Structures are given as structure tokens and as C-alpha cells.
Amino acid sequence: MTDSRPRIVVINPNSLTGMTQAIEGALEPFAALPVRIDCLTSHDGPPGIESQLDSDLAVGPLSKLAREHAGSAQALVVACFSDPGLWALREHYSIPVLGIGESGMLTAMATRTRIGVIAATRQSVPRHFRYFSLMGLERRVVGERALDLHLTDLEDEESTFGRLVEVARTLRDEDGAEVLVLGCAGFGRQRARLEEACGLPVVEPSQAAVGMAIGQIYAAGRLPA
Q1: Other CB atoms closer than 10 Å to residue 75's CB: what's the count?
Q2: Residue-range definition of the domain harbouring residue 13
Q3: Which of helix, strand or coil describes residue 22?
Q4: Hey, CA dihedral for 183, 50, 29, 162, is it positive or negative?
Q5: pLDDT tens-digit series, residues 154-186
Q6: C-alpha distances in angstroms, 20 versus 42, 145, 151?
Q7: Hey, is 83 helix, strand or coil?
Q8: Is the CB of residue 13 less than 8 Å from the CB of residue 80?
């Protein structure tokens, strides 16, 4: 039987299958909707995206994977907070192409005024701030703080959660953040209880991007024939 649901392809640009599984976990709330969400791992990508070089190296394998799947997709999602290759893919494909970084920040702007961002590593922070500047968000982002964890460390969920709470409360109390954005695709399962622990709305960027993709698909009537 042919699957008539619109297909959203979510690509993890690094080669960590654990990261892809974390993205799948974050997207579980969409399972009841009439949409097919396929999360893919870029096995030829870098083993984690922490530096600018990692982000740049991810673009080629990401583009190859997008090319293989775009023909059967109604939307593509780049599941890295730096949105590597986003504009190149948008230039090439007519379907919606969303990046979780841009989508997460747009959702935060629609939620509160003062935005705090939680990064996995300190290496990521300068790269993220360059991106925030390109988006014109210098006055909206009151701070970004890092967990000081490598992406491979995120599989220890309890240890990661402890650091998330500590950093979230610092962004709230010292930087005056009113909404928090998880600046990595690997934190998805932690969102709800982090909101409870810090008392602020928390944006999970993979959820933000897929939610926007669903809205664009149905609003424009971009459904499978």
C-alpha cells in the first residue's frame, strides 16, 4: 500500500547515529500527525560538528544525501544548529528547506524577547554568534553558554541534564534570559523537564523546524499526488 502522507526528510549532518536517535526521540510528539518523518544520518560527515571546519566539511556529504532523497520529499530539514549548507539547498530545491538553528531562533523570538542559548561545547559559541549576527539577532540574544561536553558525551542523559539545568539557571539568573534555545540537536529528550526545572520556556530546534515544515507543506497544499 502506497504511503500517501507527506514526507519530511530530516538529515543529521554528522556521522553519530546516537545523535540521529536523539533527534528521532525529540520528534516523537509528531507521530500522531498525518506526516512521515524520516531521520537520516550522514555517515560520510564529520563525527560531530563542534568547529567551523566540522560545519564546512559536513556540507558535501549532506548535499549528496539530500540529492538522494529530495525527489520523494515534501520538505528537507538540516538537523544541525549551525545549519550547514542551508542556503545552497534552498537555492537548489523548490520544496521547503529548513534549518534547525534558524527555526529554533525564530520560534524563540515568537515566544519571548530575551533569548538565551545553550551550546554543547565552547567551540560552537563563536560560530553560533556569527550566525546570530547574520540573522540580525544581536540585541535579542542575551547570552550563550556551553555545557563543555563533547557531542559523544550527550548519550549520558542524566549527566547531561544536570549540566543543562545548571547552565539554564545561569542564563536565567545572570543573563536575564526569558526563553531558552537548545543549541544542539542532541538535547531533545530533555526539553520538557528542563522547562520544569528552570521555569522558562525551552525551544527544541528540531521540533521547531519540523513544525514549520508541516505548516508550510499543508498551507501550500504541497501534498503527494
Answers
A1: 25
A2: 7-99+207-219
A3: helix
A4: negative
A5: 778 888 999 999 999 999 999 999 999 999 988
A6: 9, 23, 12
A7: coil
A8: yes
- Check: CB of residue 183 under 8 Å from CB of residue 162: no
Nearest Cα to Cα of residue 198 among 223, 224, 161, 146: 161
Look at residue 2 and tell me if it is in a domain: no
**And the C-alpha cell for 225?**
499526488
How many domains are there within the chain? 2
pTM more than 0.85: yes
Could you write out the three-class secondary structure of 116-134? EEEECCCCHHHHHHHHHHH
Beta-carbon-side half-sphere exposure of residue 97 (alpha carbons within 13 Å): 21
Q: Provide φ and ψ at 171, rounded to 5°.
A: -60, -40
Kindly state the cell numbers that stand for 68: 538522494
Looking at residue 32, which CATH number applies to its domain? 3.40.50.12500
Query: Which is nearest to 76 in space by CA: 55, 58, 94, 56?
Result: 94
Q: Beta strand pairing status for 115-119 and 179-182?
A: parallel
Q: For residues 20 and 26, what is the distance between their CA atoms, to the nearest angstrom?
A: 10
**22, 16 contact by CB (below 8 A):** no
Same structural domain for residues 17 and 91?
yes
At 96-147, the pLDDT tens digits run: 999 999 999 999 999 999 999 999 999 999 999 999 999 999 999 999 999 9
Confirm if 89 and 116 have CB atoms less than 8 A apart: no
Q: How many other CB atoms sit within 10 Å of the CB of residue 64?
A: 12
